[in-house]
From TrEMBL, chains A, B:
It comes from Papaver nudicaule (Iceland poppy). This is glutathione transferase. It comes from the Eukaryota. Keywords: Transferase. Coiled coil: none annotated.
Amino acid sequence: MAVLKVHGSPISTATQRVIAAINEKGLEYEFVHVNLAEGEHKREPFLSLNPFGQVPAFEDGDLKLFESRAITTHITRNYATSGTSLAPAINNPSVCVNWMQVENHQFEPVTSALTWELVFKPMFGMTTDAAVVEEKEAKLAKVLDVYEKRLSQSKYLGGDAFSLVDLHHLPNLQCLMGTPIKKLFESRPHVSAWSADILARPSWVKVLDMLKN
Amino acid sequence: MAVLKVHGSPISTATQRVIAAINEKGLEYEFVHVNLAEGEHKREPFLSLNPFGQVPAFEDGDLKLFESRAITTHITRNYATSGTSLAPAINNPSVCVNWMQVENHQFEPVTSALTWELVFKPMFGMTTDAAVVEEKEAKLAKVLDVYEKRLSQSKYLGGDAFSLVDLHHLPNLQCLMGTPIKKLFESRPHVSAWSADILARPSWVKVLDMLKN
């Protein structure tokens, strides 16, 4: 089996997404630390791995990928028999793809903005923009209303089993759990149960352990 | 074969994306017009088709989907033997998925913002925000620099054949061709050739004809 290499940073949510998928599959990998503070992601040799200059980048033998959700999809497909399946529910892959796109276009933009304002800006000594937080919080509430209904019909977003759809949410979800936005998740019973369930997965706890070290 | 139904509006870029894929496959479909000006997308019965209240929504028999790229993926997979393949290049599906995610996370956010400022705001009598245009234009230029390099290596973004990766770009690309942003595409030889090639596809010309009527 080819050696998997992840080039990234533990504080990068996209890097965390990839590691979570590798952990679910129980695969070995080499972690190549990219020093963001020194701008290593904006120059060679990293730019040859990801021309957009963002972490992570990924190698599986000769194959090079860089978009986090494309990497998790590759891992799911190419290591299908290892660990958790992670694949879309077999009876209805199109519905699962639909909810993967919901994460891409409804959850990710608003939670990334909130994470930036409430987690990373304070970390970098910058000032949170309260107006942006208010706007995005209102948007997230509407998204979570739809999630609440969906999760009252199936245990996970893609169907009855944990899959990539849920996994893709983990990094931003984790970040927001340390902010006042947490209440939006906790006030919705099905969202709250789903959130607690996926955040407790050993694959994710292992990512958090990596962050602590 | 089940009758395909597209609920949407011809001026919606996401609706156009779906129709382009159906046209590439040469499939029959029923178009159900959703009157956006009257807010039909924000109330029942439409909300039962898309709880986020956005067009399009799609039905294939009993299956209901609403994210445009999930619908095109479903059409590609479930009507594999009709019309153009549209599937990721068979030798390297993971690379194709990677570039589909590039469209999702690099091209779409910046071109949607530019389309809103330069096409839809003027259409609705609103004022274009020049600062936003300047910022997004600079970002798009960097994205297109990466595209230029990619397209010097393969004729299409996903590989040597036209695929969903390219198709997903069509609606925003078309909108920007009627704005000063056009120069960013035309000044890059490979991007310019790719853009002219995909905009001239009969499937897309048919979408434009629908818009004119």
